[in-house]
User: What shape does this take?
Amino acid sequence: MSLLTVAELQQFVETHLSPAALQEAIDWVEAQLAEEVGAPYTGAAISETHAGYGRHLFLNRPIGSVTEITEYGSLVDNTGAVLAATDYTLWADEGIIERAGAAKWGARVAVAYVPRDDRDRWRQAIIDLARLLIDRTALQSESVAGEMSYTAPANWEAERRRVARRLSFRSM
Assistant: This one.
């Protein structure tokens, strides 16, 4: 099910497209975002595996809560140690987990966490990207009889990446 309804999109985008076409645009935008930044918030934990050795792990999204952190001594080791909450410091807004004390992470670290509820941010991104998709024109700028003018972004792909970056710390 979509995070955004056609009626919600129509409040922000003026178009002659049918509701079915608008739903296709919403579905396409949501699929592109999920492919680039991961699934939207569902309340379920997601997992990320990171190379360790440093003091910080940089997750892809802000953290709601940590479910489990498993540290592995080598890249091929499959018997890791589950850490206690006292073994790390959480910087939830930044999506950063810092190893406690002067310790460094092992070679590989698996983090299971529930991302912060970002559905409002997703809805805004879907609106912005759907608008970009619907309004996209081959012309960068046009003017009609001096009464109406339209200027498109200089680079459509850069604008799309800028909107998607609002949902993830991952570089696009």
Observations:
- Residues 6-40+118-165 form one domain.
- Strands lie at 46-51, 56-58, 63-72, 81-82, 88-91, 96-99, 108-115, 141-144, 148-151.
